[in-house]
Design goal:
Chains A, B: It comes from Mangrovimicrobium sediminis. The structure is a homodimer of 127-residue chains. Helices cover 55% and strands 11% of the residues of chain A. The first copy, chain A, is mainly alpha-helical. At the A-B interface, α1, α2, α4, β2 and β3 of A face α1, α2, α4, β2 and β3 of B. Chain A binds a DNA duplex (30 and 30 nucleotides) through α4.
Amino acid sequence: MQDDRDMDAVFHALAHASRRRMLDILTARPGLAVGALASEFDVSRVAVMKHLAILEAAGLVVSEPDGRSRRLYFNVVPIQMIHERWTTQYSAYWAGQLTRIKYLAESATAPPSPQAKSRKKGERDGS
Amino acid sequence: MQDDRDMDAVFHALAHASRRRMLDILTARPGLAVGALASEFDVSRVAVMKHLAILEAAGLVVSEPDGRSRRLYFNVVPIQMIHERWTTQYSAYWAGQLTRIKYLAESATAPPSPQAKSRKKGERDGS
DNA sequence: CTAACGTGTAACCATAAGGTTACATTAAAG
DNA sequence: CTTTAATGTAACCTTATGGTTACACGTTAG
């Protein structure tokens, strides 16, 4: 972890609802087999295996063979590391200094700083 | 937030080192203009604007027009919400119940449970 | 008013994501 | 040993990502 590419991998892995659901399922039923996991989804088994490969590449899922089957486990470590990064990197702002920005986001009309002009016709805020 | 598509958007936005760096820059220099931000990167201004669009769609960046320029601001709220989700959803496991799985991940050789057979030639753990 | 500057838009390109079906491989059961 | 069941691989398709260059638009400065 701690490397940019690793972070890319973890965030990318988490950027799909099906993959997040896989983590939920594996959290609830550790040691689940590939086929059993796949049966929980509408898409094909191969599609599920591709998602699994992405989760494994990110370190979020680990596995071990068990006969002709394979047992899958959720691994929290990468999430913990990212969590640590976040809280340290943005801790100053979580403390409240960015309340100014927060209210800009919630009511996207008022200027975030005194010297800023009021928006006239742009109206382009984050979606 | 709280919606799956919103989470997709935030995670996807964070899944690129350039975009994370943009958030860092905007955290350090709130109100920065598009061109000034773009000058920090090797890629073209248009590429930077596309990244910005993704960050804005995720709600991680908000902006307001200022003359012929546009001021950009980092918005923590989506990250805070995802953070809350994480800590509540996985709090039980962060407490230590998954230590068994963690050690599987770190030394990817020992079986995570007694009834599991030892790996023979698979050697496929999460990369 | 005109020129220059900062942004936004359009069109295009290469590659990666996400999905499919069909086939190969390995291990357990009969 | 042959069949069946679980997983893995290959080839292919469609759409999204990330990037480019060229051009249009609105705003400030001469």
